[in-house]
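pls read this protein:
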Amino acid sequence: MANALNSKTEPREPDNEDAERAPLLREPREGLPAVTADADALAGVIAALGAGSGPVAVDAERASGYRYGQRAYLVQVRREGSGSALIDPIACPDLSELNAAVGDAEVVLHAAHQDLPCLSEINLRPTLLFDTELAGRLLGYQRVGLGFMVERLLDVRLAKEHSAVDWSQRPLPEDWLRYAALDVEILIELRNALEAELAETGKLEWAREEFASVLAAPPKEPRPDPWRRTSGIHKVRNQRALAAVRELWYERDRIAQERDISPGRVLPDAAIVEAATAMPRTTADLTRIRQFGIKLARRYVQTWIRAVDRAREMDQAELPRPNAPGDGPPPVNRWADRAPEAACRLEAARATVTGIAEDVVMPTENLLLPDTVRRLAWAPPETVDPGSVGEFLRTRGARNWQIGLTAEPLATALREATKA
């Protein structure tokens, strides 16, 4: 905390309840670094980071809601002895030399699952990870945002007013850059505080297993039928209307990718759902739907009409199924009628996992994924004992610490539920 407060801060201010608030970080302790945007500057940054010591704090800013995809538009890096650097990954799209410079040093990220994919795109791939958000979850924090955790553990505040801006903008305003630099300013101090708490609560080895699992996870496969995640699709009542959602969604995605803008800025989900429900036949009918009258959507009005027409003219066999096919158990609300024994097992398994999670003070989903619990209850091993249950959990990706905590109690719960 002492190091954190070497940065410039504002005086404590009372909050709405007249309690003192932590001081607000205003300036990076060594001043705002220039943005690294050419090969020579990048070589200097890499050399400085290689000469530093200890963990490397990393953050990335994307342009979610503005651009297509999740690429990084700014990368912030900090290490003891080398200070902070702001790197423009559009001008410097290959950070592979940074990997070699820091070697096997631990990389500290907050919510690594969000940043690792875009960092991988620019060839920045950690070999050792500390995820401060995941550490907070394992410690049972109900709020794990960076700002909250910094204020709670280090007694300083981070400004968050630029968290949702368009980071693809060039040049980036100085106040945005200052905000970005401060996100890594005390990330290592936060890491150290969390590591001490993990050790004190006996969870440090659990955390190390989790961090290693995050790093080892393969890239996510494209989601099948991504159009089924259209917000409000539950309002669409028949297969032909579902086909219209699908056709409109893919047209929107194509346009968004071509223009490199967020799909929601081409056409909102609500417009897709309304058009699929109404199935308009003419451009006049279509533009009566308010969102189709906005400038960009109106430019493609013929595209939208052709998409709806394709859905209208499809053979029955071409229409999408009402529910996406899956490889898992049926929806839980059907179990009581279709498989009452499985429903009893699920109730017992859920209660067991909830009880253990309460004992070790963490969210149940961090102890075991809900899907894993459902699959175990639906189709348990032929012989239910701690060994077979543990092996089942391992095949679903559970880590050693999770298996050690849950395999035996779950085996007991499943056997007792079967007897009931």
User: Anything to note?
Assistant: Residues 4-216 form a domain with the Nucleotidyltransferase; domain 5 fold (CATH 3.30.420.10). Residues 1-19 have pLDDT under 50 and may be disordered. The two ends are 55 Å apart (CA to CA).
